[in-house]
Amino acid sequence: MSDRARGATRAGLMLLALSAAIAARAQTPDDTCRNGSFPANETAVGRAQVIGAGRVSLLSDDDGCPAETQKCRGTTVLAPGAIVLSGHRHGAFVCAFDPAHDDAGYLETARLKPLPVDAAPPLKAWAGRWSYGDDTIRLTAKGATLTVDGQAYWPSAHPSARQFPGGPNLGDLSGTATPKGNAVTFADASDPQACSATLRLIGDVIVATDNGACGGMNVSFSGVYRKR
Questions:
Q1: What stretches in the chain show pLDDT beneath 70?
Q2: Could you state, in order of their start, the residue ranges of all structural domains in the chain?
């Protein structure tokens, strides 16, 4: 092979590697900020308050975003004082989840004031009925433990009989566990393939994630739950 051919081959390989790197970068979870993926993607969740003058829109994670442009602005608009969950940083932006509108998107870091999160909330703060859409989680405190009774559905609790004549796919969550800090995991230690779910109490909401084994196809307890 000539030097010119070898040079062309090396250049082609470098271009291929660069293209692969760009593709991988575009698919990294760190770029994703959406309501459906927020609970599972965000390993460290905090609370923050919107500050500054004027209302602010949640920004999308589409190509070329986040940025304060019309293309990136979503439909959810927050007023100063609104409380959101905060996730990972992406440049000058933070991935935020708005429990009031069940929506997620990026906000400028400068427009957020971090708020304290109770690292070891009392059991009474956990107890009660929590809901995310049609999905529910009921927590009962006894001694130093919590007992969970949860139901989840797909696509909803009452789907169209024409589209789903057999009714929705169902999921159940049960068990007893002791919280560690502001998190509690319900799992069957004897069966690692069985349903397991971790709940994190962040202020007045619960951020839940599961292992995808808690019910029928597409059923998941993952979500941001509010006490009802």
A1: 1-30
A2: 30-115, 123-227
State pTM to two decimals. 0.84
The topology under which CATH files domain 30-115 is: SH3 type barrels. (2.30.30)
Q: Which residue has the tokens 């969950």?
A: 85
Number of C-beta neighbours around residue 166 at 10 A? 7
Helices (H), 85-228: 123-126
The Cβ of residue 125 has, within 10 Å, a number of other Cβ atoms equal to 17
Report the first-to-last Cα separation within the chain, whole angstroms: 72
Domain 123-227 CATH class label: mainly beta
pLDDT in tens, 100-153: 999 999 999 999 999 999 999 999 999 999 999 999 999 999 999 999 999 999
Q: Find where tokens 């169902």 sit.
A: 170
